[in-house]
Amino acid sequence: MSSLAMSSFVEQQIVLHQFTAKHSVQARAMLGWSREDLAIQAGVAVEAVQQFESQRDVGDETRLALAFRLEAEGLVFFPGFAPGWGMSVRGALSESSTQLAYQTVE
Fold first, then answer.
1. Residue ranges covered by each domain of the chain
2. Mind spelling out the 3-state secondary structure of the chain?
3. What is the spatial distance between Cα 106 and Cα 101, in angstroms, rounded to a whole number?
4. Any idea where the HTH cro/C1-type domain is (predicted)?
């Protein structure tokens, strides 16, 4: 297995073990999203979101789609903790642009 494929596999396994139904509910609340919003954003059926958040079995693909979509909004997930705001690419880019603009003005 190539290192890229192995890295992707490991990342997916970490997400599958860290992302819980409770995380999904809490993350939606943080974003102000309904189940329908998350389903549309993640490209899954609303029933799949309902099933996952009711702690019923869903496929790994569904769980990954939900987790990755919420992570794309800048959220991070750790077992036993509520979701938190991580460093998003958008935030990092705007912060570095602000710093660069400030440095060039001085």
1. 3-105
2. CCHHHHHHHHHHHHHHHHCCHHHHHHHHHHHCCCHHHHHHHHCCCHHHHHHHHCCCCCCHHHHHHHHHHHHHCCEECCCCCCCEECCCHHHHHHHHHHHHHHHHHC
3. 9
4. 26-75
Length of the chain (residues): 106
Q: Which CATH class is domain 3-105?
A: mainly alpha
| Global pTM exceeds 0.70 | yes
Which amino acid would we find at residue 44? Answer: V
Q: How confident is the model at residue 52 (pLDDT cuts 50, 70, 90)?
A: very high
